[in-house]
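Recall that a protein's primary structure is simply its ordered list of amino acids. Everything else, from secondary elements to tertiary packing, is in principle encoded there. The following example makes that idea concrete.
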Amino acid sequence: MTSNNTTEIDSQTLSNWLKAGKNVSILDIRSLSERAEWRIPQSLHADVYDALKAGNEKALDFLSFDKNIPVVSLCAGGKLSLFATEILSRKGYEAYSLSGGMKAWNYAWDTAIVQMENVTILQIRRVAKGCLSYLIGSGEQAMVIDASLDPYVYMNLATENGWKIEYATDTHIHADYVSRTKELVQASGAKHLMIGTANVLYDFVPVTNEEIIKIGDTHLQVLHTPGHTYESVSWVLTDKALFTGDTLFTDGIGRPDLKADEEESKSKAIMLFSSLQQLMAFDSRMMVFPAHVSKSIVLGQEAITATLEQLKNDIAALSLEKQDFVNGILANLPPTPPNYLTIAEINRKGNSTEYNLADLEAGANRCAIQ
């Protein structure tokens, strides 16, 4: 089904092409159900998965692309797309297969910058899964929140901006991706901050509710916001911004049911209501920076953020009374994230060496209720 001269490109090359505005046709040959979970926003879909899997060399005969523009085929793991690429090459296209498929694209990333007085916020995005982490710099110091990529991504960005990473933290024990915060701490020498009650099996520097951490010419304050998880915190950047983890998103709220039975989910939903009330009590002009977005991110798009006022208008659950809130979110829970029990346990232990992370982390983010 494939020949030795079939051309592959890696996710970094495709990412660079898209960032540079290069014209490229991206052909997604996965099943519709897989595409619905997560996708490259610029891609086109062809419902040819079964035909290609059966070895049908005419499966792509109905397609017509501009032959002056390269075509990149993608599948889940980069194997079936080799066959599609071979077919397209024989038709005269400059055709490529995305090496590693969506599992590899899961680690493509970009940044968006938000400049505020005395502080720069770099939002670092895993564009496929919608994971958002932050490098917050002021003066010559910086802090990283919710690292989800190789530590050297953050370290190199800090160096480029003249910062030293003094602190790194997770807003909670994540269940949808393996945290890289512990690795970042080991590589950079930063202090690993977690709320003192965090149930993890590695050393960290404990912080308490309302404790203030100084970064250069600014500071952040810990705000315990349980509900999604017991140890969930938000970080308050003076009177400017809230880093809300999985408690509050720009398109929804955190889910309280992971690793919980029906009664515990209800108890956590009540906690979540109180935590959201705490957040909504801040100045309505404050900017919210969440840990996730539910859809795949377009490379180069603006920072994913919104004011509290915007979120109050856009998210109906934020205006509900307690009982209606609890009943509503428990009645509208999405499917659980793939492998969430395994991922949460890895993050609790701080050791992922036994696992293939590309397989483990594949799939959509499902930690929000919209």
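Residues 8-104 form a domain with the Oxidized Rhodanese; domain 1 fold (CATH 3.40.250.10). The chain has two domains: 8-104, 108-369.
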